[in-house]
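Worked example 3. Consider a protein that binds SN-glycerol-3-phosphate.
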Amino acid sequence: MHARVAAATTAALLGGAVLILPSPHAKAGGRITAPLVVAHRGASADAPENTLDAIDRAAELGFEWVENDVQRTSDGRLVVLHDASLARTTDVEEVYPGRSPWNVRDFTAAEIARLDAGSWFGPRFAGAKVPTLREYMERVSRNHQKLVLEIKNPELYPGIERQTLRLLSNEGWLDPVHLRDRLIVQSFSAHSVRTVHRLRPGITMAFLGTPPVARLPRYAEFADQINSDHRSLSSDYVSAVHALHGPHGPMKVFAWTVDEPATARRLAGFGTDGVITNVPDTIRRALR
Ligand code: G3P
Ligand code: CA
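Given these inputs, the predicted complex is written out as structure tokens:
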């Protein structure tokens, strides 16, 4: 059993700007002793997922770490959206009837910019946009936040790894400060994780999944983290990951998507290093 410390992050509102103080994890010298709380797709229980509103809401709640999903338009622009299709989280079916199944990769960035990505969640968010990754990075930077960036469906977007790195570099996110503790790149595709690691070995990489323990050493060659569905985790599995060294030190485990307080506490008991959640404030309270 690992010792527990409060994981609260303090935020102060100063003239409209959000000041977020470092969490205890940022200064922990050795093994993290309380799970880091990551806002999944932003504070996605309070605001439409993967929008700028969702990361602003996470900042208002005092959360440094947000997670997103990156895909590519038909004309080669990177945008932030979870599903391969625009249908669930935008009004694309009304704006572009007849273009089923409304996949991101079949629309230009200009077409996607016309969509409303907020009304489905609530009238208060009408007019919210699908952000481009550039817009998203600028807002995360302005909010002084940190990012778990997921390369989503990379098999649909050849070369998306190199393109994402180019954009991150242009936005100043591949400098030593950001690489030290502001950026994690993850994917369900081991090939994609390995590719990013090969292109920029300084980036903290995470594989999304729960590989068999016997295969973990192979993942440790290119990943620093195993980010698993919480239902697949056990204390023994977390310990098996912790026993390995990734490219930058002892490997870690983040669990998703952890929205129940009891689940968060159970995972904390396993020594899980991070929990990715739609309800970060609820989980922060549960872990105090
Ligand atoms: O961050 C982990 C989690 O986002 C993976 O699942 O489907 O929500 O992208 P999904
Ligand atoms: Ca994701």
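Take a moment to read the result before moving on. The chain is about 30% helix and 20% strand. The longest strand covers residues 65-72.
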